[in-house]
Amino acid sequence: MCKECNGWSNFETWNYKLWIDNDQGLQKMVLDQAGKLSVYDLSKFLKDLIEDNNPLQETASMYSDLLQSAIENINHYEIAESFAEEAEEILKHEKEHEQE
User: Fold this and answer.
1) Does a structural domain hold residue 5?
2) pLDDT tens track for 34-86
3) How far apart are alpha carbons 28 and 60 in whole angstroms?
4) How confident is the model at residue 2, as a pLDDT?
5) Rounded to an integer, what distance in angstroms lies between the CA atom of residue 38 and that of residue 60?
6) Cβ density class 63-76: b for 16+ within 10 Å, e for less
7) 69: nearest Cα among 21, 12, 20
8) What is the pTM (predicted TM-score) of this model?
9) Is 91 helix (H, G, I), strand (E, B) or coil?
């Protein structure tokens, strides 16, 4: 499935970003990493994060194959770029408030 979804390259990418954004602790962790890592390294971090937490990774079944396929369709770099921009905006906003 390569069809664009809500401004993202595909459904899987949009869905992964949505789930991260809806989990405050996870979102904070990724934003913290975005402030420290390059976009490329952040994309690898995001890829490792979902692959390492795949509950079906050790299971051989139709469901594990379908889930793995969906995970492989995620554009981790696109998500990393978005988080890098968000982290930059947060830092800019914090600096503006420090100057006040």
Assistant:
1) no
2) 999 999 999 999 999 999 999 998 999 999 999 999 999 999 999 999 999 99
3) 33
4) 60
5) 34
6) eeeebeebbeebbb
7) 12
8) 0.88
9) helix
Q: Domain of 29?
A: 11-99
State the alpha helices, DSSP H only, in the chain.
Answer: 11-21, 24-34, 39-52, 62-72, 76-99
1 part of a folded domain: no
3-class SS of residue 5: strand
Q: Does residue 77 contact residue 85 with C-beta atoms inside 8 Å?
A: no
Who contacts 9 (Cβ-Cβ below 8 Å, separation ≥6)? Answer: 2, 75, 78
Closest by CA to 43, choosing from 53, 52, 33, is: 33
What's the domain count of the chain?
Answer: 1
Residue 92 belongs to some domain of the structure: yes
Give domain status of residue 3, yes or no. no
**Confidence bin at 100 (pLDDT 50/70/90):** low
β-strand partners of 8: 5
